UniProtKB/TrEMBL annotation:
Origin species: Mycolicibacterium iranicum (Mycobacterium iranicum)
InterPro entries: Rv3655c/TadE
Protein name (Swiss-Prot/TrEMBL): Pilus biosynthesis protein TadE
Length: 95
């Protein structure tokens, strides 16, 4: 019985991590896209709305590209850092 509970806990932690990873990917992609258009404030707000709670959002310019990185930690797997990076080409007139 204890083994069954342990297996279920590990499966739940894995599903939670996968869900958080998908949210980080979506948030990073949207943040990079909006920041590349020159709307960094909206990019951060949008990423905060999509990303898991307590996620750290970092948007930076790298030459002709905008890079958005979203990282967080799972409550069920505190030793594992979950994150994603989105890259978009900066548009003309975007800052």
């Amino acid at each position: 019985m204890v083994a069954l509970v342990a297996v279920l806990a590990v499966c739940l932690a894995g599903l939670t991590a996968i869900s958080m990873q998908v949210r980080c990917i979506d948030a990073a992609r949207e943040a990079a896209r909006l920041a590349a258009r020159g709307d960094a404030a909206s990019a951060t707000r949008t990423a905060q709305g999509i990303a898991p709670p307590d996620a750290v959002i970092d948007i930076r310019r790298d030459g002709d590209f905008v890079v958005a990185r979203v990282t967080t930690r799972s409550a069920l797997l505190p030793m594992v850092s979950i994150g994603a990076e989105g890259v978009s080409a900066a548009e003309e007139g975007g800052r």
